[in-house]
Amino acid sequence: MGEDVRSVIIVGSGPAGYTAGLYAARALLEPLMFAGYMSGGQLMLTSDVENFPGYPQGVEGPAMMIHMREQAERFGLEVQDKNVERVDLSERPFRVWVEGDEFRADSLIICTGAEAIWLGAEGEDEQKGRGISTCATCDGAFFRDEEIIVIGGGDSAMEEATFLTRFASKVTIIHRRDVFRASKVMYERASKHPKIDILTFRQVKKWLANQDGLTGAILEDPRDGSVEEISCSGAFIAIGHKPITDFLEGQLETDEEGYIIHSSNTMASVPGVFAAGDVVDKRYRQAITAAGMGCQAAIDAERWLEDQH
Ligand SMILES: Cc1cc2nc3c(=O)[nH]c(=O)nc-3n(C[C@H](O)[C@H](O)[C@H](O)COP(=O)(O)OP(=O)(O)OC[C@H]3O[C@@H](n4cnc5c(N)ncnc54)[C@H](O)[C@@H]3O)c2cc1C
After folding, report:
1. Which residues are catalytic?
2. Which CATH number fits domain 5-115+241-308: 3.50.50.60, 3.40.1190.10, 3.40.50.1220, 3.10.25.10?
3. What dotted CATH number matches 118-237?
């Protein structure tokens, strides 16, 4: 057994986790956080963040996450850079297994985020954050008057493409079939937009780049393997996200895509377990909304713990 029973264990160290940690620490709950395989969360993967209030000149994502961690630690958040492997939510205190050790807690706050699904095309890893993105709201403004491609055939792809027309000179949607999952209204809005072209039966085979970043892609027709080149300086992959909930082994209610469902405020289906950030939210997926929900979860946990006495 790792330790005595903690009041709160927080799983995940993105904006939701650190904000929950800050509030729980300031409420004197002595929270323990397991930061996970990606300490700092998704913003560790990006350079400029221009839409988090309080940074008039913008801020580098990793620097912002270090600030968040330092702020929460100043009030007593204990952080261990370890991964939670498994939990048992069947009785309280809850049990949490972390790299061989077992911990127990009266409440849990799950802030494990969601991973964007990438294509895995040749050259992709090198260009992530250097022209290839999974978030138009976050990165669209970096591509003013440039040519952009959007990959996907669902509502997200249509929405991202339409949003990107504000900045780009031209947006091309690339889809591997000629049938779209997108709703009719979203598809029509995108397809009728004068700045948007749609290329069907194409998939990205390889990304092209020079020392300044992305320059284009080799596209393949899945029907006959023929290839062609397209130029672009930005690419947005919009083929879905996967919430990180495998370690919960189905012990919390989720929707059909795996996002944790709140049963009351930020409390999940098991009383005493709270969830915040992108692991719950498939609509906004922003640092500020994740941080806001982390705050709510810590306040809800604190009030719930108070009610148990
Ligand atoms: C490239 C990129 C650029 C972005 N740019 C912006 C931007 O400019 N502005 C903006 O507002 N948003 C931006 N976003 C979106 C933003 O990063 C997310 O909305 C936000 O990070 C979600 O916060 P979160 O706390 O819910 O989860 P995340 O940041 O995803 O953090 C999840 C945390 O959970 C941990 N974890 C997962 N599994 C376990 C486990 N089993 N045990 C312990 N820990 C675990 C991980 O280590 C990680 O620390 C960007 C995203 C990406 C990918």
Report:
1. 135, 138-139
2. 3.50.50.60
3. 3.50.50.60
